[in-house]
Amino acid sequence: MVALALYRLFLSPLAHFPGPKLAALTGWYETYYEILNGYGGQFTFRIADMHRQHGPIVRINPWELHIDDPEFYDTIYTLREAFDKPVHLKWRFGSPSGIFSTPEHRLHRLRRISQEPFFAKRRINQLVPEIQAIADRMCRRLQESFKREDKPVNLSNMFTSYIADVTTMYSFNRNFDYLGDKNFESPFVQAIKGFKDIAHPCTQFPWLGWFMQQLPEAVVRYLQPPMLSVQDFQRSMRLLIRDAQNDVRNGSNFDANRTVMHGILTSNLPEEELSIDKLQDHAAGLIGAGIASPQLTLTTACYHIISDHAIRAALRKELEEAMPDPDSPLPLAQLEKLPYLGACIEEALRLAVCQMARSPRIADHPILYTTSDRTYKIPSGTPISSATWHMHHNETLFPSSFTFQPSRWLSDPRTTSGRSLRKYMVAFGKGTRNCIGMNLAKAEILIGLSTLMRSFDFHLFQTSYEKDVRVVRDNMAPDVRPDSVGIRAMVK
Ligand code: HEM
C-alpha cells in the first residue's frame, strides 16, 4: 500500500501534473464524489473547482488528466487520430458492444461504418414526412387530452414519447404509439432513469455491470432496482431484433434501407458481429442515446421559451410569418433557415449539455500541451478529456452562461479573439466518435419545436427553477433534484 502510494505521488509519469494530492493517491476520491457526496454525480463540478485552483490541466485521479482549455478540445476530439476510449467504461451503460461503448478504435470504426449511412443528411431528409406525422400526432394529443381538458402536461414525458416513436420507427419499422399513452408515460422514461442510475456504480466498479447481467432477476430486483428497467428494456430489444432477423431470413416484408436494424443485419459486418448479444447492444445504444438527448434538448428549449415573454413573442412572430397556416408545416430545408428558431435550438443544445460526464480518449503516443508558463508532455496511454459542461459554461465564451440567450447565436457570432462562436458548441462532440445521430436529432428537434410552438401557447404549472431545472448532479446527462416530477405546463 505504502509503495503504491509513494509510486502514485512521486514516481508515476503523471506525478508532476497539478491537482489535489488525494485525487492522485486514490480512485476512491472520485468514487466519493460520484456516489456518496450530496446527490452523487458531483465529480464534474469538483473538476471545475480543481481547474479554478490548479489551472487548465489537472490530474483528476491516479491515471487520468482533464484539460479545460477550449483551444485544446479539437486536439482530443479529432478526426485525424485513432484514439481509443478507456476499457473500464465499456460496461457503463450495460451494452459493452455498442459503438458508444467500444474502446478500440479499429473495432469502433468497423461497427460505426455499418450504421453511418442511416444517419447521413440525405437519408434523414427522406424521413421528414414520418417525423412530421409523429409531431402532428403529438399536437393532436395535446389538443384533445390536455388543452381541451385543461390538464397540465409533463413536457419531459411528452418529448420522450415523441422521440421514442420516431426512434423505434426508424430503428425497427415499428409503431408503438407511445404518444397514445394517457399521460405520455412510455416505458423509456423508467428505462432512461434506470440507465442513469446504474451508470456511476458501473463506472466506479466496472465488474458490476457484467455481474448484474449474470444474476437472476429476483436478486437484481433486491440489490439494484434501477437495473430491472434496464433488463426489461434489453429484453424488449431482443424481441425486436428477432423479428428483424426473421424478416431478413424470410426475405419478406422489409426494405434494408428503411430501418437501421435491417440495415445492420444486411451490412458487411463479419458474422461474429451479428450475434444476438452484440445486436442487442447496438439497439440499446441507438435507442438509449437516440431518445435521452433530443428529449432533454426539447424540454430545455420549451421551458426557457415559455418562461421568457420576449423570447416566446420573437419566436412566435418568426413562426407565424413563415407558417401562416399552422396546419401547413414548412419543409425541413426552410425550417433550417429560420434564424431565431435556429438560435433557440443552438442555445437549448448549449444549456442542455446532454452528455455531462467526461468522455476520455487515449492516444498511443505522447501529446504536448502548452500553458502560458510551460509545456507538458502527456504520456502515451493516458486517458485525457475535456467535458462539454465546462466548455458550455465557459464565462469568457458564453457570458452569463446559465441564462438562455438565443441572441448570442444570431448574425455569425464571434468570440473576443474573432473566432466563430460555433467552434465552441460541442453538444454533439467532435472527431471520430462524435454523435452519429446528429442529423436525425436536429430534424426531430426542429420539426417538433416549430410544430408545437406554432400551434400552442404554454404556461408553466407548478414548476420551479430550483427544483425542476437547476442542474445539481451529473447523472451522465445533467440532472435535477431527485424530488422533481418534471417540468409541467398548461396548454393554451
Ligand atoms: C440532442 C441530441 C443529441 C446529442 C446532444 C448527442 C450527443 C452525443 C455526444 C456528445 C456523443 C459523443 C459521445 C462520446 O464522445 O463519448 C454522442 C454519441 C452517439 N450518439 Fe448522440 N446525441 C444526440 C442524439 C442522438 C441520436 C438521435 C442518436 C441516434 C438515434 C444518437 C446516437 C449516438 C450514438 C450511437 C453515439 C456513439 C457514437 C460513436 O461512439 O461513434 N445520438 N452523442
How is this structure best described in words?
This protein has one domain (69-354, 387-491): Cytochrome p450, CATH 1.10.630. Helix 9 (187-204) packs across helix 12 and helix 12 packs across helix 14 (276-307). 51% of the residues lie in helices and 8% in strands. The protein is α+β, with helices and mostly antiparallel strands and 492 residues long. Strand 1 and strand 2 form a beta hairpin. It is built from 20 helices and eleven strands. The strands form four sheets. It has a four-stranded mixed β-sheet. Strands 3-11-8 form a three-stranded antiparallel β-sheet. Strands 5-6 form a two-stranded antiparallel ribbon. The model has no long low-confidence stretch (mean pLDDT 92). The protein has helices at residues 2-11, 21-25, 28-36, 43-54, 73-76, 105-113, 121-147, 155-172, 187-204, 207-214, 217-223, 225-250, 260-265, 276-307, 309-322, 332-335, 339-352, 388-392, 438-455, 465-469, and strands spanning 57-61, 64-67, 153-154, 361-362, 367-370, 375-378, 383-385, 458-461, 473-475, 477-479, 488-491. It binds protoporphyrin IX containing FE. The site of protoporphyrin IX containing FE has 24 residues, from helix 14 and helix 19.
Concise structural overview:
The protein is an alpha+beta fold. It is 51% helix and 8% strand. It starts with a helix and ends with a strand.
Can you name the CATH architecture? Orthogonal Bundle
CATH hierarchy class name: Mainly Alpha
Average pLDDT figure: 92
| Rounded radius of gyration (Å) | 23 Å
Q: How many E-type strands?
A: 11
Present as ligands are: protoporphyrin IX containing FE
Our count of domains comes out at 1
Give the biggest sheet. 4 strands, mixed
Helix content: 40-55%
User: Helix- and strand-based class?
Assistant: alpha+beta
Number of helices: 20
Strand order of the largest sheet: 1-2-7-4
GO molecular function, one term: iron ion binding
Keywords: Heme, Iron, Metal-binding, Monooxygenase, Oxidoreductase
Pfam families: p450 (PF00067)
Protein name: Cytochrome protein
